Amino acid sequence: MKEILCIHYYFPPLLSTAVIRNYHIACTFTEFFDEVHVLTSDNYTRFPIEPRVLPSNLSIEDVYTFDYRRLLAGKGNNDSHKATTKKASPFFQWLLKVQKSYPFSLLLAEGNLIYIYGAYRKAKQLIANGNITTIYSSFGPYADHFVAYLLKRKFPHLKWIADYRDLQIEPIYKNVIFSNYQKRIERKVLSKADVVTSISDGLSRQLELNGRPTKTILRGVDLREPERQYDKFTISYTGSLYFDYRDPRPMFTELKLMIDSGVIEVSDINIIYAGRDGMRFEEWISEAGLKSIFINTGMVAQDEAKTIQNRSHINLLLTSSSPELTGVLTGKIFEYFEALNPTLCLINGVYDPEFEALFSELNAGEVVYNPPISKGKMQSFIQDKYTEWKSTHQVKSTLNKEIIKSKYDWRSQVQKMLN
Fold first, then answer.
1. Which of 61, 75, 221, 252 is the most exposed place for a label (fewest CB within 10 A)?
2. Shortest CA distance to 163 belongs to which of 331, 393, 379, 3?
3. Residue 160 three-state SS
4. pTM confidence score
């Protein structure tokens, strides 16, 4: 009998996009292990929740947590994810770097020492009383990896998979202080890991520098049933801006030119934004002179965000790249693929071969850049989809469903991880 222990600060019923990868991988583990145990923060009792169906051989234990998210929630069950516009001051940005950096993260970050101690204590009991052979920890926050590191020291016979949705030390965002010291700490922690996994080859290349076996485990895709598209030609973005690292303004400029020149009739088109950065998005929309076609839904439930994606004619994907880091395939891109509609990927930075290869393989849409690499590419793509909508009142999916089903489902990704 084999059992696995998953250490996830973020896990259902907490309503957060961060739970998606943890949830699906843990549920898929139930096909490979007799029992799956999940340790998770009890912060979900303070925030909006979205219960999900769990397999019968998956059990959850809460870990008492008292960190800044609980403090920000106050007495009510209020989401503590703040808009980046509220974090934009230089002091606040510096404070974010401090709380993310060791040793300050042990006191200030999500899952501080209280969570780490509680999770470690409960994990030791589960290991002593069961047949756990494997530990799987997620990032972020880094507290999950700290717990797994301590367990691996205590029980060296266990296998440890350390997974990353993002990087702790970001070459693009410069998100920690004393970065060389942080790299040494991360190398020390991961020295105990049997395998390190990440969401993309770009992240894996960075994590390989820690000297441990590293594998890319993409976010799995569950294709959705098509929905009736909006009556107006609609381009949507559902997500965050991360200060100015994700920048939709080049698309706004192109749309304004197309409307002014008569290529697109202003009465035909809408731009929808759903997320925590609506104020910033609206500022840029106003600057571009597109306020009359803009709809700001604010923060919405995950199901509502998916409905927007399902009904849009183009889903806008915003991301960043740099000479130090390309190929950051976030969960958002695969979430868009699930909607089946064409994706316009606008990369703020340098040419990204991993995005180009993925979009080409799946015929998923178009990849464009800021600054532009191929002039007129974005306008040509939008005009082509608009013309299709104008004549048929819909935009058909071009996504290669067979490749998605055979190569990018959750079971394939977890099988690769366990191999």
1. 75
2. 331
3. strand
4. 0.80
